[in-house]
């Protein structure tokens, strides 16, 4: 059995939107209250132990007594907030994440509901039943398959509602092809394969660059004007000074910027999904280099290009698809992969060039065996050889 998630956009009516905003607020309130409790508890007693999800759920009962309006929210969403906070603390203790922070209403909102007694149910191709909301219209290219475990409802910065349905279904392994491939991640091409294929990087942002720049300028200008108007209200001691939410033109510009950025992100993700599916169908063993992407992002000259390439996302998608379909992903140390000749195994030591000059070399002749090599394809072949050697 494997867990799979299906993301789809929903279109709630006005009453359902009000209910969603109420649940978002309740889940956010519980998160902030429990986080504050953990912080104050530690301040009062440095030896105090961390309160786990079970303990926070017990405290939730008292919190509902103190704040009766919490009872109007979907109950499992508040328990999920406690569980998510406990997970955030566990990742912090392991050094994987930073310390959990308080949530704000200004950013994207979400909550998670658990499926209990079939309270989450797909009715037909365009309608789904959700707890506390009833029947909601959705639009999606595919329907969730298998047993529904939970659903995450999310409101994006672009004021769009999405649900992600997590299901448990049978593991479907793909037929074995007997093929193996190595891949070299790049900035000119997304992935260079050892068989000679190069997956191009599509610069989706170019299509929306002018419009995005136009709305970003408007957003900045309207934000400045709004802040000046708010400051003037406070200066004049207005009884109810305006807030940023009251400036509709600024909010419109903010939403438009978010929409164009979402379009770019969706197109980039679509390319990664299609390409990774093609890889796992075609090859049984896929070998990639294990790059320190966080460290590479510190190079400000390459940071934008690396972010656009979405290497981390590519590897993570490929990993779970290999797990789903019975294929194997191997990651190897990338050291010297572009400098070693696949034909004779000789390390050319960058042909005596410095690091920046060597990066500009796309083809080179091996000084030992005189073979003409494509830098990226040769690196992919060396990566494949390294990966197979670990088998």
From TrEMBL:
Location of the Probable transposase IS891/IS1136/IS1341 domain: 167-299
Keywords assigned: DNA recombination, DNA-binding, Metal-binding, Transposition, Zinc
UniProt domain Transposase putative helix-turn-helix: residue ranges: 1-45
Keyword Metal-binding part of the UniProt annotation: yes
Recorded GO MF terms: DNA binding; metal ion binding
Gene Ontology BP terms: DNA recombination; transposition
Coiled coil start-end: none
Residue span, Cas12f1-like TNB domain: 311-383
Keyword match Electron transport: no
Similarity remark: In the C-terminal section; belongs to the transposase 35 family. In the N-terminal section; belongs to the transposase 2 family.
Record's protein name: IS200/IS605 family transposase ISLhe65
């Amino acid at each position: 059995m494997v867990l799979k998630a299906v993301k789809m956009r929903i279109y709630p009516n006005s009453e359902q939107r009000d209910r969603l905003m109420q649940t978002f607020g309740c889940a956010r309130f519980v998160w902030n209250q429990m986080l504050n409790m953990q912080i104050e508890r530690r301040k009062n007693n440095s030896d105090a132990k961390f309160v786990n999800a079970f303990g926070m759920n017990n405290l939730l009962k008292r919190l509902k007594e103190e704040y009766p309006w919490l009872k109007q929210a979907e109950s499992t969403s508040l328990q999920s907030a406690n569980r998510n906070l406990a997970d955030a603390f566990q990742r912090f203790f392991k050094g994987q994440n930073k310390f959990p922070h308080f949530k704000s209403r200004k950013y994207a909102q979400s909550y998670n509901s658990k499926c209990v007694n079939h309270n989450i149910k797909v009715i037909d191709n365009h309608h789904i039943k959700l707890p506390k909301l009833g029947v909601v219209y959705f639009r999606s290219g595919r329907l969730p398959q298998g047993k529904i475990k939970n659903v995450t409802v999310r409101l994006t910065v672009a004021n769009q509602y999405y649900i992600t349905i997590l299901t448990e279904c049978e593991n479907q392994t793909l037929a074995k092809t007997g093929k193996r491939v190595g891949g070299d991640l790049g900035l000119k091409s997304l992935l260079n394969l050892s068989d000679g294929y190069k997956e191009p990087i599509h610069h989706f942002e170019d299509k929306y660059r002018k419009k995005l720049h136009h709305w970003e300028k408007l957003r900045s200008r309207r934000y400045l004007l709004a802040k000046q108007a708010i400051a003037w209200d406070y200066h004049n001691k207005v009884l109810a000074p305006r807030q940023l939410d009251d400036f509709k033109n600024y909010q419109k510009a903010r939403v438009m910027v978010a929409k164009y950025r979402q379009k770019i992100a969706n197109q980039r993700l679509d390319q990664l999904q299609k390409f990774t599916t093609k890889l796992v169908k075609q090859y049984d063993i896929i070998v990639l280099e294990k790059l320190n992407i966080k460290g590479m992002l510190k190079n400000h000259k390459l940071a934008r290009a690396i972010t656009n390439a979405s290497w981390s996302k590519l590897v993570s998608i490929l990993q779970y698809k290999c797990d789903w379909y019975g294929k194997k992903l191997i990651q190897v140390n990338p050291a010297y992969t572009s400098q070693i000749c696949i034909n004779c195994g000789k390390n050319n030591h960058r042909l005596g060039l410095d690091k920046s000059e060597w990066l500009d070399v796309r083809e080179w002749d091996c000084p030992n065996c005189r073979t003409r090599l494509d830098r990226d394809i040769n690196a992919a072949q060396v990566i494949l050889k390294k990966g197979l050697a670990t088998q």
